[in-house]
């Protein structure tokens, strides 16, 4: 069975929600990973109608305030209580679109003691899990890369993330992102161990040398051997979309990369991403038959 392919709206950051719908559908994507920041206050019903008319499915969604602890690179409240209020409000705003899951990183410890930061994250996961249960849509904790970890996360492996969730005793799944976890020790073994807890899978590639956190490549254009990684994900029984999520700075976050993928028209990015993903799938199928 062909793997279903969706595109996260961060990949076409400057386009509108409606432009994303048109571009992703025209490129042949199956779904869209909706970012709350693309929704317009007062126009949500109209945008929901446009989404339904597009024929795309809703993959994992990202609230405008995405993490429990503050992210230095992203705007948002500083106090965790205010952030949780915003995250819950974002989940409720996104819920009518029927996303397959909500994505949630922890955020970094910042000036907090590590134990205090973990405690806040654990309490936050419980709050989000309660709202997730009310909405009937799972929420997933996303472990993130060790690259500039101090700006992003408390957990950097699937095992770390699972341990935090287990400590919280909250009904929270896991989010797997190839860019963040590709260099984790024994990655395929970790995928096999924790893959039944995945609620979202995000696909992208690591540029070498990488120039910043906001410098991802399209699948197959970087140094990750993605085919066996995606095969390992598939062996877990994953049946959801594989969400292309590309950050590629055009000056928005301080680096004007001349080859920024965000400079491409939305349809051009979507078509190139779908083509790269298809090439990976073809390569994987060919190797499987040869074996």
Task: Describe the 3D structure.
There is one protein chain. By secondary structure, this protein is an alpha/beta fold. The chain has a single domain (5-290), classed as TIM Barrel. The chain is built from nine helices and ten strands. It has helices at 17-27, 44-54, 80-94, 114-135, 158-168, 178-181, 187-194, 226-235, 266-290, and strands at residues 5-8, 31-33, 57-58, 102-104, 139-141, 173-177, 198-203, 205-206, 216-217, 242-244. The strands form two sheets. An eight-stranded parallel sheet has the order 3-2-1-10-7-6-5-4. A two-stranded antiparallel ribbon has the order 8-9. The chain is globular and about 45 Å long. 48% of the residues are buried. The mean pLDDT is 95.
Annotate the secondary structure layout.
Blueprint: E1 5-8, H1 17-27, E2 31-33, H2 44-54, E3 57-58, H3 80-94, E4 102-104, H4 114-135, E5 139-141, H5 158-168, E6 173-177, H6 178-181, H7 187-194, E7 198-203, E8 205-206, E9 216-217, H8 226-235, E10 242-244, H9 266-290
Parallel strand pairs: 1-2, 1-10, 2-3, 4-5, 5-6, 6-7, 7-10
Antiparallel strand pairs: 8-9
Helix pairs in contact: 1-2, 1-9, 3-4, 4-5, 7-8, 8-9
């Amino acid at each position: 069975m062909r793997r279903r392919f969706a595109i996260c709206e961060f990949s076409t950051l400057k386009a509108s929600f409606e432009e994303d719908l048109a571009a992703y559908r025209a490129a042949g994507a199956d779904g869209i990973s909706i970012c709350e920041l693309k929704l317009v206050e007062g126009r949500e019903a109209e945008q929901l109608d446009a989404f339904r008319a597009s024929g795309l499915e809703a993959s994992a969604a990202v609230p405008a305030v995405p993490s429990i602890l503050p992210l230095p690179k992203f705007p948002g409240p500083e106090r965790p209580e205010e952030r949780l209020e915003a995250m819950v409000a974002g989940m409720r705003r996104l819920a009518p679109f029927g996303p397959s899951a909500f994505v949630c990183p922890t955020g970094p410890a910042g000036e907090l003691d590590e134990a205090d930061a973990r405690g806040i994250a654990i309490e936050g996961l419980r709050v989000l899990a309660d709202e997730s249960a009310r909405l009937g849509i799972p929420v997933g904790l996303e472990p993130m890369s060790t690259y500039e970890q101090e700006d992003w996360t408390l957990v950097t492996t699937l095992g770390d993330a699972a341990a935090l969730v287990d400590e919280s005793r909250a009904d929270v799944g896991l989010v797997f992102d190839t860019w963040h976890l590709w260099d984790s020790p024994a990655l395929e073994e970790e995928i096999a161990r924790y893959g039944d807890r995945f609620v979202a899978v995000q696909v992208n590639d690591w540029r070498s040398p990488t120039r910043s956190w906001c410098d991802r490549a399209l699948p197959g254009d970087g140094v990750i051997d993605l085919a066996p990684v995606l095969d390992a994900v598939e062996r877990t029984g994953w049946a959801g979309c594989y969400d292309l999520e590309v950050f590629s700075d055009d000056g928005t976050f301080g680096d004007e990369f001349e080859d920024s993928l965000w400079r491409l028209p939305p349809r051009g990015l979507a078509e190139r991403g779908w083509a790269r993903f298809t090439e990976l799938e073809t390569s994987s199928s060919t190797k499987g038959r040869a074996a």
